[in-house]
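Deliverable D5.2: sample structural annotation.
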Amino acid sequence: MTVPSLTYPEAIVIGLLQGVTELFPVSSLGHSVLLPAVIGGRWARDLSLSADQSPYLAFVVAVHVATAVALVWFFRADWVRIVRGLITSIRQRKITDADQRLAWLLVIATIPVGLAGLALEHVVRTAFGKPLPAALFLICNGILLATVERLRSRQHAMPVPIGAGGVYTSSSAADTDIASDRRISGQSWGQALLIGSAQILALLPGISRSGSTIGAGLLRGLSHEDAARFAFLLATPVIAAAGVLKLPELAGPEGHGILGPVLAGSLVAGIAAYVSLRYLTRYFETRTLNPFAIYCIVAGLAAAVWSIAS
């Protein structure tokens, strides 16, 4: 029996796929399940989470860490303010400004998916981490995104309750980012908890983490720009924790002998994630989730037909 391994082409392709689909609202997990299965052959064997002695899980850990690094670097100015605000609020034992409030909104919004991930991730991936379920959930993801946009189009403007009504003038990109963070910090604690809880859906392969949180933010009254920004900030600790908690997998037997491909794939994933962030933060200033909804439905239907026929 051939033992699964990891080649440079596999690592580079999956690294690129992970870096892009982790942030685009199209589900990185769903694509990571479907692409190797569709290609078949050695790819299906090497890139399987269920195969004995497969290095794939160790590799996935590495590209998650690379994606988290890209997120931190892209939003580095925001994270400096957020971490400083969190530390200051703890020292003062009170929240006195928008940065401190945003820090605690992120903490509260992260708790539900953190608990759900620890309890359910292995069970859900074992049960649904196969091509047909991933294809069906990808269709559901597209329907979810389209439904959110349809519901939002029927709503009147619904500003968040605190800080959203101010007029912000921005002379630079940094000023624009700060203004967006101020609007995001105007959410209630309950709104942040609901938006964060939407990430639990992404435990299902085919359901997008960013799509779920952006959709929840839109339904709670955030603009596309602010909903996407909050989703990306919220994804940072979750993706980083997913990688760090599983680092022993990379140091274990599954990670033996794949250092070169892992480094290559991680580098590609980090660059792809950074470029994706630059594109998406601008995209959501003026555009919607509808193109991604169409893609998910079409790709999911094609993958489902292939899975049933094969």
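Annotation notes: Residues 158-170 have pLDDT under 50 and may be disordered. The CA atoms of residues 110 and 196 lie 6 Å apart.
The annotation will be released with the project's public dataset once the embargo ends.
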